[in-house]
Amino acid sequence: KTPPCAKKIIDMGIKRCIIASLDPNPLVSGRGIKMMTDAGIEVVTGIMEKEALELNRVFMKYISTKVPYLFLKCGITLDGKIASRTGNSKWITNELAREKVQKLRNKYMGIMVGINTVLADDPSLTARIENGRNPYRIVIDPFLDIPIDSKFVNFEDGKSILITSYNNVEKERISFLKKKNVNVIFLEGIDFKLYDILKKIGEIGIDGVLLEGGSFLISKAFSEDVIDGGEIFIAPKILGDDKAISFIKGFNFENISDGFQLRNVKINNYGNNVSMEFYR
């Protein structure tokens, strides 16, 4: 969206330019470097490239694939629960951890939850942070169960996106949602692939999505291997109830070695809470 910086560098008379990582944008493809070298500027590339790529993970993936970067966030008890058997989840993590979540909501363009989360909690899905920006709110709702009085429907700011089935295209509720300025995206069937959802979201121009759950979506994301990174917040609480809601379920690995392995893990402290931050 901004003009190339190479021309500005040339106009300013800069003699040496150090570039950490090259721009993967196919519309750019090294033209800025050529402009500078043609102007007699010494160009050095690859300095701290790894660090630069880490800083620009979201941009790098989206600009080269047009598929948004997917970052998982969830808060769990020590025994892996995100809610009690009654659905109560406030609050598992402490205030410091919840502040970090608001920063994540401010960082990513979109925030995604399943319809069960909306039905249980009616969340605002906003970034409660000073001078922050609210993300696009994305709800996966195959059967069009979204309550018309939910916060999601009634923002009317054009940032609510509902993913539902083509089976619902003629339903009266679709017209109501569109009048409320909800962007409705239709997909075939009812068991949507997360990759297909992300691709559709990418077409709107959303480059990064924070996946907040619930359990079904998180489990699906792991099984389809579409998670690019994440942060799992762990509180020193134990429910000990096999009917409480686990943050991930539906798998039956016979061997420990077959289970999901988080990579590039970093441990963060939030008072008496910890988190495991990981990246692909």
User: Would you list the SSEs in sequence order as H and E?
Assistant: HEHEHHEEHEHEHEHEHEHEEEE
Largest sheet: 9 strands, mixed
**Number of individual domains:** 2
The number of helical runs is 10
The largest sheet has its strands arranged as 8-7-6-5-9-3-10-13-12
- Give me the secondary-structure category: alpha/beta
CATH topology of the largest domain: Dihydrofolate Reductase, subunit A
- Report helical residue fraction: 25-40%
Would you tell me the overall average pLDDT? 93
CATH superfamily caption of the largest domain: Dihydrofolate Reductase, subunit A
The CATH architecture of the largest domain comes to: 3-Layer(aba) Sandwich
Tell me, what's the shape? globular
Q: What's the end-to-end separation, in Å?
A: 28 Å
- Gyration radius (Cα, Å) is 22 Å
How much of the sequence is in beta strands?
15-25%
* Spans where pLDDT lies below 50 across 5 or more residues: none
The number of E-state strands comes to: 13
Specify the CATH class of the largest domain.
Answer: Alpha Beta
